[in-house]
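Design a sequence for this backbone.
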């Protein structure tokens, strides 16, 4: 009986070991972290699947040369890196620096640099070739200046690979994704599948993020919206079909912006 117990124990231990190795979880480190409250800006927040948390470097100056490193136990094969540029909370996105130019390098001497858009929306960086690496380092080369702080932030980064962590899962409430406007065209909102959105027009556009809450979609704006007097919006599908209508905060109605005015 003791022999049978040890055989079962070894099988379970082997399964746990294989399962852990199969997951190949990433470990994140950085050259610096913003103080005094480092726990709010840890490097791991750049790969936790949450836009509202971010890594923020803490070196003196604008963060040029600061690095974020992703390490794996076993090599991952990838050609695309997805990134959400800047601080993930839209209310503070404009306050901190965003990355303008970034360098991707690996332990096997692969290097490639990319220019990023000054936007919180998802950006995919396509490498010239598919590479295998255990350590991927992101180095800040240039920045977009923030309005208040000189620290540079990265909200989320992921390697699009079968054996690495995947990008954020698209929302279930697909009816919310698209362009919406009030019947009088006083307000507009564009909702993307990556969890980001914009409120308003090109000349006065406000960033926002949204979360699927099941019965509704919760939108967080970077500032208070004059029409609703709040920086939170609750979107519910009031009418579906070919002419869908969305109810906002139980008071305002938005219709599909088919003509995109």
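Sequence:
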């Amino acid at each position: 009986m003791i022999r049978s117990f040890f055989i079962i124990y070894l099988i379970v231990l082997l399964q746990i070991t294989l399962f852990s190795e199969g997951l190949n979880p990433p470990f994140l480190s950085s050259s610096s972290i913003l103080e005094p409250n480092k726990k709010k800006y840890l490097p791991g927040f750049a790969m936790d699947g949450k836009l509202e948390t971010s890594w923020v470097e803490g070196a003196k100056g604008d963060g040029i040369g600061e690095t974020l490193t992703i390490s794996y136990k076993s090599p991952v094969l990838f050609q695309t890196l997805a990134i959400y540029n800047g601080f993930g909370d839209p209310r503070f996105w404009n306050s901190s620096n965003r990355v303008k130019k970034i360098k991707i390098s690996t332990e096997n001497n692969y290097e490639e640099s990319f220019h990023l858009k000054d936007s919180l929306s998802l950006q995919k960086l396509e490498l010239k070739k598919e590479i295998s690496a255990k350590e991927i380092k992101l180095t800040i080369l240039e920045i977009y200046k923030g309005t208040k702080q000189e620290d540079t932030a990265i909200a989320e980064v992921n390697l699009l690979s079968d054996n690495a962590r995947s990008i954020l899962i698209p929302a279930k409430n697909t009816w919310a994704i698209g362009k919406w406007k009030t019947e009088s065209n006083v307000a507009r909102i564009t909702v993307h599948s990556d969890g980001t959105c914009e409120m308003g027009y090109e000349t006065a556009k406000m960033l926002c993020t949204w979360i699927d809450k099941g019965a509704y979609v919760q939108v967080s704006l970077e500032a208070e919206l004059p029409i609703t007097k709040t920086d939170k919006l609750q979107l519910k599908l009031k009418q579906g079909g070919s002419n869908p209508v969305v109810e906002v905060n139980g008071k305002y109605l938005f219709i599909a912006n088919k003509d995109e005015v």
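The two ends are 76 Å apart (CA to CA).
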